[in-house]
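Quick question about two entries, pasted in order.
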Amino acid sequence: MLALEAALLNKGLLTAEELDARTRQFSDDPSAEVARRNDAGLAERVRRRIFQPQPLEQQAASPSRFAVGDAIVVRNIHPHRKSIGRAAMSGNHDHNGEHHPEPQSYAALRTKAIESLLIEKGLLSTDAIDVRVQAYEQDIGPLNGAKVVVRAWTDAEYKRRLLEDGTAAIAELGFFGAQGAEIIVLENTPTVHNVVVCTLCSCYPWPVLGLPPRWYKSDAYRARVVIEPRAVLQEFGLALDESVEVRVWDSNSDIRYMVLPERPEDTKNMDADALAALVTRDSMIGVAQVKTPMPTA
């Protein structure tokens, strides 16, 4: 986020003054939402770029902007600004029985400020953002995880490697990178059901699951799934037999967890693509099971 902010300021697309003012506005009114502006053409170009990426053109290397010993000026855009913190703190408790929205982090406020200003200036559209978020949250990321799951279902040796060293086995399929330096894979069985949370923030295995869904980052999920996992799973529509042990795993900045769901019955004759279509993001977090496919007529 800081790199994006610096780039927008350096290119003159935003000014520090308007960005600070908009951040304070969202801090003073936590319930304020970013105004929507749709642009079907831009959204379609984003969708095309994501799902049908064009090969990058070879470009001549640009000369370095700085030489060793050059004097440079660094802009201070560190996120911890006390004024924002104090403003956000004012919403911490109820007054006269009225509920106040939960204070948002500086990063969340700054992100809303950047998004709203870019939309107002016509440089961005809400539906283009939605397309990109949905692609990485529901499509591209979880598809990677589904390929890992299917490989484990159909290759016993790969499954052994996956459970012993998830990071290395996942990398065999070409999935690695940010938020995936250490991934541990947890196997669901008829007697043990695993579910993943990050109680501190929203640590999540991006290379195999994409972006974390909003509910995964919510205070309610992060607090309740540790205390009453069965009740939370039931709210997701998953009712487990009392004989099944539920294990809750807390991801952190060092280790991310991914669930290897049970393979449903009546899938022995299905090919890899058909199996992958059964695997959902929620089943790899542990709040759902992979459902048995409906019989075809």
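Here is the second entry:
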Amino acid sequence: MLRRLSPESQTSLLAFFNLLWDAACFPDCWKMAHIIPLLKPSKDPSLPTSYRPIALTSCLGKTYERPINHRLVHFLEAEGVFDRNQCGFRAGRSTVDHLVRLETSIREAFVHRQHCVCVFFDLQKAYDTTWRCGILRDLYSYGVRGGMLRCIQSFLTGWTFQVRLGSILSDVFLQENGVPQGGVLSVTLFAVKINSLAKVVPTSVSYSMYVDDLQISFSSCNLSSCERQLQLTINKMSQWADQNGFRFSPGKTVCVPFHSVVACLQIQCCT
């Protein structure tokens, strides 16, 4: 619908967005989300955890978010804020970067007859538990000031949501914490908050981040050395999570050891 607006209507909408930007305001009428629960494949429909919540928000609101997000990302990238191993929703980066890096680490370990042990993490309700004040604090420390910071503060506060099942709507609930599901700005703001996690990972440990998906690995001839180094890293990451309001999901955290015999079998199967 917005794409079919006449040039005059587009100009009026742009003027309205500029007024909102000058006032550093995100209207409350755009802060209502309808949550549609979708059943995950092969899951028990009687369990609430078997559903993935999809948030439907205002199209006008998301249109207004896009230029704000573009400005914010441009500033953060120019200042070199994002960690070099964060590839989530960044221009010119993708999951392929991490796959190539991980494969290289595994192959190098095989060449040196080492074990390569990897741990893959999942953050529990990552977007819903993100500390809003922490986001604003981190943005300020990175040099975000003025109208941009006030506009993001306005965007983060006052969100409400309703759950919709068919034509039935639940009561209205206030979202007291986290970043809005389905928001254009939400991914960038979450990446800002999780950015400091990389600082607690020792330089001897390799790591990758794709928004809220994390992976660490360590290679050594001694398997016990791998276990010890990774456990120390996990302890530091858990401490960071406690300090920043996050929690890792033990059920979705997986440790995978690689060594040459298994790797050769896997390569033969793949080819």
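Reply: Residues 262-271 have pLDDT under 50 and may be disordered. Helices lie at 7-22, 59-78, 95-111, 132-141, 146-156, 184-194, 223-244, 260-270. Hope that helps.
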